[in-house]
Amino acid sequence: MQNTSMADSATSSLLVILLLVSSLLCICSSQGSTNSLRVTLTHIDADRDDLSPLQIIKRSIQRGKQRHRQFLNGLLMSTQASSGLRTPVEGGDGEFRMGLSIGTPPVPFLAIMDTGSDLIWTQCKPCTACFKQPTPIFDPAQSSSFANVSCSSPLCKKWADTKCGSSCLYSNSYGDGTSTEGFLATETFNFGGSDSESSVPDLGFGCGVNNGGPGLNDGAGIVGLGRGPLSLVSQLHTRQFSYCLTSIGGTNGSSSLFIGSAPSSVQVSNASTTPLLQNPVLPTFYYISLVGISVGRNRLPIPPSWFQLTSDGSGGLIVDSGTTVTLLTEEAYNVLRRYFLAETKLALSGSDNSGLDLCFEIPNGRAKQIEVPELTFHFEGLDLALPPENYMIVDEKMGLACLAMAPAGSFSTFGNIQQQNMLVIHNLEQKTMSFIPTDCGKL
């Protein structure tokens, strides 16, 4: 058995997903492109000091599993739909907020960053139904740069679920139960900088006047980064985007989203890549090919077909910013669990308070010295060896160390805990993805 020691810094970095820097977005022309945008991200539970590490994770897991179930339900509806009609399936309530502003003069608001959806939208006056948000609701009548989108506009035709009224009407629903209805429009969005280069004019978005569901954890809308034509990355015609998420509980720096060039401080030219796949049934999502998993030196007896994206749209693995822990198909997870348990020399916990399936008891005073097996994900063309803090959640108060993975349905999702302290590059031009180990807080 090959073990990895948990570093002294791991305990503090494995406490909670708290990104304590206020949201803003700025132009970063020093990174090699005048079209590069940098967004500072804040986790939605950043202010929950009243919760323990595993309580925070448990909340995130509940959101992630609900999101995953909605993806699955949408997949079933899409494959059963007749005459080629497919029901849009979108992510919704993600895990990270970003700050931006809209209109002239600019009105600031917080939005959820979501790689699992396509539409940019915010709540607008006059509201038929709007949920509570901490910032003023945008009033189009007060903006000199606002313009409605007509039904004949190419922008209107790019959204699948539109109707014609006095303007181009849209509707959309999300995995967490949030829904929005309104009209498509164009507006100037400001991304936090102090000069005109921070503004993007004529950006298509949804002006939501009839919105329902649980709300968006202080968000007033969603910024979709998916592969559809109305997402932020598609409208900006960017060749790539990337994000870098700091360690759980990390207080050194903040997480960032980069639209356009990657930060110049990260060496990306020789990075290994894995192909981006596209599911014709769920075309929004970013799929990659997982071909195996190793625990220690043991390649698990899991046939690649268990992770394969099939012609009917089932199977495969989605890389998702809005799901916290990695969710594997149940049969694959059961094999991983059995091998990981066999190679971990810690007492199995009987507690069911963590929200995770596989937890171990931490010996008193030894949280920093516990040893766990190495864990490697084998993607097509890329072997990703995870550091322990990317798959073990340690809660000293509860005396538990838990594997940050869980069983799911007929497809898998690679969660954001597994992606922390990595620059995750989505190269849309070359259709590849890279995971580059990075101290995200120092970018």
UniProtKB/TrEMBL annotation:
<protein>
    <recommendedName>
        <fullName>nepenthesin</fullName>
        <ecNumber>3.4.23.12</ecNumber>
    </recommendedName>
</protein>
<dbReference type="Pfam" id="PF14541">
    <property type="entry name" value="TAXi_C"/>
</dbReference>
<dbReference type="InterPro" id="IPR001461">
    <property type="entry name" value="Aspartic_peptidase_A1"/>
</dbReference>
<dbReference type="GO" id="GO:0004190">
    <property type="term" value="F:aspartic-type endopeptidase activity"/>
</dbReference>
<dbReference type="InterPro" id="IPR034161">
    <property type="entry name" value="Pepsin-like_plant"/>
</dbReference>
<keyword id="KW-0732">Signal</keyword>
<keyword id="KW-0378">Hydrolase</keyword>
<dbReference type="InterPro" id="IPR032799">
    <property type="entry name" value="TAXi_C"/>
</dbReference>
<comment type="function">
    <text>Extracellular proteinase found in the pitcher fluid of carnivorous plants. Digest prey for nitrogen uptake.</text>
</comment>
<dbReference type="GO" id="GO:0006508">
    <property type="term" value="P:proteolysis"/>
</dbReference>
<dbReference type="GO" id="GO:0005576">
    <property type="term" value="C:extracellular region"/>
</dbReference>
<feature type="active site">
    <location>
        <position position="320"/>
    </location>
</feature>
<dbReference type="InterPro" id="IPR033121">
    <property type="entry name" value="PEPTIDASE_A1"/>
</dbReference>
<dbReference type="InterPro" id="IPR001969">
    <property type="entry name" value="Aspartic_peptidase_AS"/>
</dbReference>
<keyword id="KW-0645">Protease</keyword>
<keyword id="KW-0064">Aspartyl protease</keyword>
<feature type="domain" description="Peptidase A1">
    <location>
        <begin position="96"/>
        <end position="436"/>
    </location>
</feature>
<feature type="signal peptide">
    <location>
        <begin position="1"/>
        <end position="30"/>
    </location>
</feature>
<keyword id="KW-0325">Glycoprotein</keyword>
<dbReference type="InterPro" id="IPR021109">
    <property type="entry name" value="Peptidase_aspartic_dom_sf"/>
</dbReference>
<dbReference type="InterPro" id="IPR032861">
    <property type="entry name" value="TAXi_N"/>
</dbReference>
<keyword id="KW-0865">Zymogen</keyword>
<feature type="active site">
    <location>
        <position position="114"/>
    </location>
</feature>
<dbReference type="Pfam" id="PF14543">
    <property type="entry name" value="TAXi_N"/>
</dbReference>
<comment type="similarity">
    <text>Belongs to the peptidase A1 family.</text>
</comment>
<dbReference type="InterPro" id="IPR051708">
    <property type="entry name" value="Plant_Aspart_Prot_A1"/>
</dbReference>
